[in-house]
Amino acid sequence: MWVIRRLYDWVLHWANTPYGAPALFLLAVAESSFFPIPPDVLLLALCISVPARSFRFALLASVGSVLGGILGYGIGLWLWEGLASYFYNYVPGFTEQVFASVQNLFSTYDFWTVFAAGFTPIPYKVITIGAGVFQINFPVFVLASAISRSLRFFLVAWLIYRYGTTMRGFVEKYFNLLSILFVVLLIGGFVVIRHFLH
């Protein structure tokens, strides 16, 4: 775990440099395909340091994350056979059991699987690579990624922009729980609507 902690600190240090915004974009790309630290860490620090640019930072994170998701999809589609052992051995969140579960989810809920992973703490890279491995409809994948990742990052940006540094502790402590609750309520709402329409 000390390696993850050092990576976490390394990511955070970019907030105190002139390269914070480009670093956020590159981190978002990398996290969607292979890197273990989520961009929320740096996004939060940057939004607190310059609240007026919060939404610009959220846009950078969103675009980078979707592009990284496309990269992850490509890894799964074209390179998985050669890289599977690397991911299983060295990238947190990847196991054969997890991939079997992901395949089952994709077979029933392709859009919602990508959406939920993009908005909640589920390791997004597992879903992006899995989407390529199991050849999920690409436009559906991109649409679900764009909506969910943008919702996640713009919500963080809005909370800091609206409430300032007082929200930092709240976001760090409860954001993942709130994002899961949001997705559960959203999907539940669609299920209820679908039930009444039938």
From TrEMBL:
GO terms for cellular component: plasma membrane. The keyword Flavoprotein does not apply. InterPro entries: DedA_domain (IPR051311), VTT_dom (IPR032816). Residues 38-161 form the VTT domain. Keywords: Membrane, Transmembrane, Transmembrane helix. The chain crosses the membrane at residues 57-80, 111-134, 141-161, 173-193. PANTHER family: ALKALINE PHOSPHATASE LIKE PROTEIN, DEDA FAMILY PROTEIN. This is Cytochrome b561. It comes from Desulfuromonas soudanensis. The lineage of its organism: Bacteria, Pseudomonadati, Thermodesulfobacteriota, Desulfuromonadia, Desulfuromonadales.
